[in-house]
């Protein structure tokens, strides 16, 4: 409980820092009104859902509404987040999905390079036909990597598979101690090109957090034409394309394992069909260019120019 409250307070403090940073970045110009905009975090999702543990009748959304009321626009990446803020009375909520860098996160064609990356990730102990799963994100308690690890253990009991996790965070040591055989912790990859190649070489990306406001890592995997397994709550599911994704009941490891099995079965049954759908889904992922075009157009509208 204290961990949860501590995380929430950090989020709240972070929101205040962002507000202050925007005030500094966009000062008044002579003869112009101040333009204010806010990109919200997952405060309303995680903090609001966990305060009930204390039995406190308090809505975090009301606090968020008070914080955002002075702003001319509130930019949010996820549809569910936008809907919640609108229901809470936050004015002028603008839904703008984060864009993916298509120059980095793009489909990898079958090649010796892709095969080499894949073999490196699988390691020497895996069989040639082993399934390669990846996960990307921060190792923190709210990300629910325990669900992913539990699900992977169930999958590996039925077939040869390797799970490679990219990221770091306060929960890493605990997760490493509890991880089943076949899990590799690759650490935080600072080279985005290498990360994109690793994701693009995988069979499936698995995500466990139902509290995301968007799920950028999921969108990047889709842009790489990699099928994804996501919880049915939070923003990660919004980033997944239903034609090449499986959604499972959030926080249910057995359901997550069944979703992984389902995607791998599709790959085994008709890999060409799944690949064609994945390539089509990759072409629909929002790009950085489309993201900034919408943001700048909104700024221009707010300024009346």
What does this structure look like?
A six-stranded parallel β-sheet has the order 6-5-4-7-8-9, with helices on both faces. The protein has 13 helices and nine strands. α1 (2-25) runs antiparallel to α2 (43-50), α6 packs across α11 (253-269) and α11 packs across α12 (271-282). β7, α9 and β8 form a beta-alpha-beta unit. With 305 residues, the protein is α/β, with parallel strands linked by helices. The N and C termini lie far apart (48 Å). It folds into two domains: 2-99 and 288-303, no CATH class; 112-282, Rossmann fold (3-Layer(aba) Sandwich).
The largest β sheet comes out as: 6 strands, parallel
For the record, give the distance between the C-alpha atoms at the N and C termini, rounded to a whole number.
48 Å
CATH class of the largest domain: Alpha Beta
Q: What structural category arises from helix and sheet content? A: alpha/beta
Tell me what the CATH architecture of the largest domain is.
3-Layer(aba) Sandwich
Spatial order of the strands forming the largest sheet: 6-5-4-7-8-9
What is the overall number of helices?
13
Number of DSSP-assigned strands: 9
Q: Might you state the CATH topology name of the largest domain? A: Rossmann fold
Task: Please mark out the parts with pLDDT under 50 across 5 or more consecutive residues, or reply none.
Answer: 1-31, 50-58
Residue share in helices?
40-55%
């Amino acid at each position: 409980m204290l961990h949860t409250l501590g995380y929430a307070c950090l989020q709240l403090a972070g929101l205040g820092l962002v507000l202050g940073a925007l005030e500094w970045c966009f000062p008044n110009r002579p003869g112009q009104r101040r333009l204010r905009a806010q990109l919200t975090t997952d405060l309303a999702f995680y903090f609001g859902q966990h305060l009930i543990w204390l039995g406190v009748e308090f809505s975090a959304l009301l606090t968020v509404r008070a914080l955002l009321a002075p702003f001319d626009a509130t930019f949010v990446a996820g549809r569910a987040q936008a809907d919640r803020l609108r229901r809470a009375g936050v004015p002028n909520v603008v839904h703008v999905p984060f864009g993916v860098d298509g120059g980095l996160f793009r489909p990898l064609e079958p090649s010796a390079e892709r095969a080499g990356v894949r073999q490196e990730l699988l390691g020497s102990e895996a069989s040639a036909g082993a399934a390669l799963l990846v996960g990307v994100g921060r190792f923190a308690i709210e990300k629910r990597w325990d669900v992913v690890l539990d699900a992977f253990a169930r999958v590996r009991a039925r077939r040869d598979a390797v799970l490679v996790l990219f990221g770091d965070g306060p929960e890493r040591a605990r997760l490493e101690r509890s991880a089943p055989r076949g899990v590799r912790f690759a650490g935080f990859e600072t080279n985005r090109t290498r990360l994109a190649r690793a994701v693009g070489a995988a069979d499936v990306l698995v995500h466990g957090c139902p509290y995301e406001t968007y799920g950028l890592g999921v969108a990047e995997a889709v842009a790489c034409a990699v099928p994804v397994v996501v919880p049915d709550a939070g923003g990660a599911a919004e980033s997944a394309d239903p034609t090449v994704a499986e959604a499972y009941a959030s926080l249910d490891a057995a359901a997550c394992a069944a979703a992984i099995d389902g995607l791998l079965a599709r790959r085994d049954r008709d890999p060409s069909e799944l690949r064609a759908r994945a390539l089509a889904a990759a072409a629909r992922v929002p790009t950085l260019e489309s993201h900034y075009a919408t943001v700048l157009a909104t700024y221009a509208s707010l300024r009346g120019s």
